[in-house]
Amino acid sequence: MNIVEVRSFEIEKCVDEASTSEEKKALIHKYIQAIEKDHSSHRIDGTSELFSGMKYVNHNADVHLDHFSGRLVLLDFFTYCCINCIHIMPALHRLESEIPVSEGLLIVGVHSAKFNNEKVEENIRKAIERYEISHPVINDSKINVWNELCVKCWPTLILISPTGKVLFSLAGESHMGLVKLLVESAKSYYEQSGQMTNYELILDPLESWEETDGPSDDLCLKFPGKLAVDDSGERIVISDSGHHRIVIADIRGNVSEVIGGPKSGFVDGDFQSARFNSPQGVCWHGRNTIFVADCNNHAVRKVDLLVKKVITVCGTGVQGNDLEGGKNGLDQPISSPWDVVVGGSPRVPDGRKLLYIAMSGCHQIWTLALHNTDFQKGAEIEMGTCIRYAGSGKEENRNNAYPHKAGFAQPSGLTHCAANNALYIADSESSTIRKMLLRNGTVQGLVGGNIDPMNLFAYGDVDGTGRNVKLQHPIGVQWDSVKQVLYVADTYNHKIKIVDPKKKSCVTLKGMNDGNGNSYFREPSGLSIDPLCKRLYVADTNNHEVKVVSLDDASVTTFSLRLAAKSESTATDRVKLLTGDITPTTVLGLIRCSESQSVSFCLSYGDLHLNWDAPSSWQVSCRCNDSDEYYLVSNGSFGKDSETEITFPVTDITKRSQYIQSVNLCVESILYYCETEGDVCKMLRYKAVVPVEIKSKCDSESVKLSIRIA
Length: 710
Known about the structure:
Number of helices: 8
CATH class of the largest domain: Mainly Beta
Strand content: 35-45%
Largest sheet: 8 strands, mixed
Shape: elongated
Structural class: mainly beta
Number of domains: 3
Distance between the termini: 94 Å
Oligomer: single chain
CATH topology of the largest domain: Neuraminidase
CATH architecture of the largest domain: 6 Propeller
């Protein structure tokens, strides 16, 4: 521990023991006076070459020591992957708004990277915009400033006096109250001594992405964090993190809901008034519920699509430091939830009674009980209980058969496998993929990391097996139930990789660059797979896009969002059953067809004499997968010929979703007829259901079926 750290520790202890604000301020003034008289104290003056040749990343200006003299300068040493660094950013925002440059305080971010990817200036600039940092930031890629000022961990805050003296150095995220007090006391001290002389600083901020590359379309994304395709494969939900909102679209990109945004906040309510703060993980629970990891609000939110409301189900809106939990969700403080997934319990793997939460802020996995359910070691927990499932709270890469003794390092991605009753975890700061057995909570390592659980610097870009694999800050993970593998968003390597849990092997998905060695992705963070496991959706965060990877040929396309035209809106082609719910239904035999075929129904009504003054009509509708809704395929009126042929391409069915496996076609008719000429008119209702299986290939050009109505 250097002399500055020793002094900082001593003043922190003295201030903590003082009883009044006046005593605290007097102690700090005395502390500053001693440092100013001590000629051995570290000084940054005009002769220093500490910032020589450096530029501000987010301003068109070189770093000059003239910017530092005559004012207080607070150096924030951070690396943009670090959750602890993210935690103090709101306090820094408040501090610089309370004491702006014009009143004598300049905050300067010193970005001293952990990962190689974080040394790239463009990536730092993206992070600055993502975190809405307005003060100037220096790229300390060679950690020269870090070493000169004896910094040892992230975050560290160092206050420099108007005379260039290093006043204090405080490491960690728990000192922000003291930092504010020290800054305010130092400001009053140097104002009284007449040494606060520099109240002007004109810098030229760089334009943001939205001002330069961002399209004007309201549906453009900004740093999308995570996404999820629903169980039917028909809808996708995207956390548009940079716009603090949730976007829901059908699988063709037609947007149905935009919830929250564009400004951050913590508000429950309808979709227009609700507010989020950098939402990350999203997951579906049934057809009409979405859970959201509202990261910077330290809360989990529930989106109800039926009543179109957002409510908080877990968290208080304030960062918590509880490592155990056990309270009702609304009373339970939590810390930076980064991902969520619905899964089974220890005894019921496919029960979907627990919401698992990657609690990145305290390096743990938590659960929220969606129903009364079984829990670890035979315990039972009540619906609404929010409690730790695994992780000691220490930031480490520790695997253990006892879940509470295992250690995670900023877990950021989750996926559930009911068949294995397992949760797979992208543990970003240890650069590992982990497995947790839900039956007993055992935590195992699959790929990446180092044998030393405290070594969180074992990263790289190496395929292989076990610990020989090297990843770089993976944030997303997705289970493929068909191939029985995991897809991993190897975020800082800008790649998608495939992990085989049985072999503990990892390979890079082929075809992930444009042929010139340039990756299609920039810090991909979220993954979701369609129900047939044929397409992988990727939240391509720093490209502000969603990409789709074909798992057949590894081709990559961009998923475009648009407001649905009225003629294309799924609401307009939803239909009610022509004959109602009480009409007896005839179930016909299964037919098999492919998208290249057409389907023909020949409807005949025999010798009935139709009343041409009344509209005798027919309708064909489809019900896809497990949906409760019917969509129009074709309709019309009967002609004078006793047989009516209805032909339509199979694509009229599959356009509802690209991932339909099974369809029920509903063939209905209402006939107005007379048994003999001039007799009393009667009505005949007919309804038949035709099960359809969609195949990838069929031999014939069409499928024909004759249906006799009467």
